[in-house]
Amino acid sequence: MSVLVVTGTNTEIGKTVVTAALAATALAAGRSVAVLKPAQTGVAAGEPGDAAEVARLAGPVTGAELARYPEPLAPDVAARRAGLAPVGPKEVAAEAERLAAEHDLVLVEGAGGLLVRYDEEGNTLADAARLLGAPVLVVTQPGLGTLNTTRLTAEALRARGLVCPGVVIGRWPAVPDLAVRCNLSDLPKDAGAPLLGAVPDQASALPPEEFRATAPRWLAPALGGTWDAAAFAARFPA
């Protein structure tokens, strides 16, 4: 079973676009891909959610949602306010396993950060990852403040016995400032895991064909791409 859980150090940092880059890279290698969004919040019925955005950018993936809540809130709060049932880790794990039986790769994209609550019992994406025995890729922001949130996320993963294969920077700026450039060398230290890519800011605005052709260049070989951390850092000396 090949399942990769994608979490972030916060919201609005590029998790969905990184997930799309992972999917596009896998598709380019001839692998079949499913994308599972356990709880989609802030999107009304009939509107495209994150799984649909991944498909738009990456190409033919199987998209799945377990629940959708209209307000842009943490899943447990959004479910309670909507009067709808929450999603628990057992449901997430069961659906990921079902998809994994039919696809080469299943990407499970969380909502917000790692420890955002999904139900009234306080279960999180980390609990689903533990049930699956799946690694958890961390998407982080590039700028000031990222070292702290990345380290907190990595320590939370280790405390739960979860494997973090690495960190991908979402929304890499066109003109990185000093803090961003310094973070290239400091992020792996704080994460205790390698830097495995950097996806440009506004990558989602690219035409889908260009996105698919370029995505492997944003991700390291461990994720199926060609991105080289040392060469990338050399372009942006601190």
Automatic annotation (TrEMBL):
Subunit description: Homodimer.
Cellular component terms per the entry's GO annotation: cytosol
Location in the cell: Cytoplasm
Pathway stated in the Swiss-Prot or TrEMBL entry: Cofactor biosynthesis; biotin biosynthesis; biotin from 7,8-diaminononanoate: step 1/2
Lineage: Bacteria, Bacillati, Actinomycetota, Actinomycetes, Kitasatosporales
Residues annotated as the enzyme's active site: 37
UniProt-recorded name of the protein: ATP-dependent dethiobiotin synthetase BioD
GO MF entries: ATP binding; dethiobiotin synthase activity; magnesium ion binding
Family matches, as NCBIfam families: bioD
